[in-house]
Specification:
This protein has six helices and eight strands. The protein is of the alpha+beta class. Strands 1-2-3-4-5-6-8-7 form an eight-stranded mixed β-sheet, with helices on both faces. The longest helix has 17 residues.
């Protein structure tokens, strides 16, 4: 599979050369705690296993995971992936802390969504964000995702289930000029659903 590009970013398939970057970035609890399946602490063995798994899934047409690099520096800055879960497409992403607040997540995810709808021919893509990761909720809202429901999802790094705002983007809504806002879970709802 070839790489994808945006104005500022190169997205290439994750490979063994990314293991040390993944290990260093995901060793940051502020990142790993916002992801469902990432353990903490995160080791090089975890990175090697993840890369092997997604490489195999890509070969089977079940996942497309990209390491995101800054074109300006050729430095890895994050990861974004599209995968099939329970017969539905889902997008996920994370970025190393030094690259937060630069719009990279929105830019990279938008490109992967274009790939999902244009090449993979997905009719809809799901995504989720933990209730305490408002920045990710904003990224999804900018991309046009709409809220569908809230449920408890596991966070391996936290060792517990966390309230997750589930969202959906259809092919018809992708690329709208004005995104639809996804409502955040209020603290009272968080407390009620957690008990």
């Amino acid at each position: 599979m070839s790489s994808l590009e945006t104005e500022r970013l190169l997205l290439r398939p994750a490979s063994s050369e990314d293991a040390s970057f993944f290990t260093a970035a995901l060793a940051d609890y502020d990142i790993s705690r916002q992801l469902s399946s990432v353990p903490y602490p995160y080791t090089e063995e975890d990175a090697d296993n993840f890369i092997a798994t997604v490489t195999n899934a890509r070969a089977m047409g079940e996942a497309w995971v990209f390491t995101v690099l800054s074109k300006a520096t050729a430095t890895p800055v994050g990861c974004v992936g599209l995968h099939i879960k329970d017969g539905r497409y889902e997008i996920g992403y994370w970025f190393a802390k030094p690259y937060w607040g630069r719009g990279f997540a929105t830019e990279a995810a938008r490109r992967v969504l274009a790939f999902a709808f244009g090449v993979v021919r997905a009719d809809a893509v799901q995504a989720g964000w933990f209730h305490d990761n408002i920045a990710s909720g904003r990224v999804l809202a900018k991309l046009g995702f709409t809220a569908t429901h809230v449920e408890s999802w596991p966070s391996r790094a936290r060792g517990e289930k966390v309230l997750c705002n589930r969202t959906l983007l259809t092919r018809e809504l992708f690329g709208r000029k004005k995104p639809l806002e996804a409502p955040a879970v209020r603290q009272s709802e968080s407390t009620a659903l957690a008990t």
